Amino acid sequence: MSRAPRGGPRSKTLIGLYLVAPYAAYLVIVYAVPVIQGVRISMLDYVYAAPGADVPQPFIGLKNYRSALSDPQLRRSFLNILEFLAINVPLTVVLGLTLAAVLAKLTRMKTFFRSAFFVPYVTASIAVIGVWYFLFSQSGLINHVMGGWAPNPSWLVNSKLAMVVIALEVTWKQLGFYVLLYLAGVLLIPGSLYEAASIDGAGVVRQFRAITVPAVRNVTILVTTLALIVGANLFTEPYLLTNGGGPNGASMSPALLIYQNGVEQGKPGIGAAIGILLTLFVLLVAGAGRGVQWLFQRGEDRGPRRAADRGPGAASGRGRTADGGQGATA
Known about the structure:
- By secondary structure, this protein is an all-alpha fold.
- It contains 13 helices and no strands.
- α7 packs antiparallel against α10.
- The longest helix has 57 residues, at 268-324.
């Protein structure tokens, strides 16, 4: 007789802990330790010094935070990021899901198109920014095509258009990654649902709204969260496209402000304080976005529950009223 396999819930828990331990250690080393170090530096009169040098770094409490919050550039940078997110996140969700739904229906050259959308994401940022600078600079291709209709001042030196151009560039570059996330979710939807909807007379748009969008709700939550986090840490594009946050701070971001204070101006304490404030801002925005999605999901779930609570009699009564005006007799 063969023995029954040993082990119970406790052994499975231990196995799970062993498997998750390497990634937990990675999170602690790469994320938790820098955050703790950032909090420490933000509360000190910190100065850069050679290794082993004994330099006084007195504790100053929240002075760096007060200095950072009193800087008009910091408030401007957070408003700029909100403007960026208001453009980038909706475009990412709408275009990502729409393109994924189209790619899922392709029967020819689907591998080519999937790869084509992903190429900008894996291309070096400096190369992509070079292309966009060629398009949107003062003497760029867009202004040449538009002629007298081109904005004045031009796109990248216009305080109202600079962040818009940056948001469009980031959306275009990162869209391929989010399309693949959506595509993985769309391909899991059973084809029988679309066939049944088609038999019932639902068109392509109706099928997209009633089947595809609800089925990939969890993917949408993931895409929204990632887009918020990546967008809030915007750095490379304003640093290179608008020469460090110009014009006059119209494209300044908190991450770029951290670099300017902590590296260029030699104020690591203020830079660390801005970093902690940015972390709290990301958590707040991501939490607010998740809360809005939860409210929408709760509202959608209430509809079927109310119909179920009324019972089949109420539903059939409404059906007779719509068909022949006999709801009262029911």
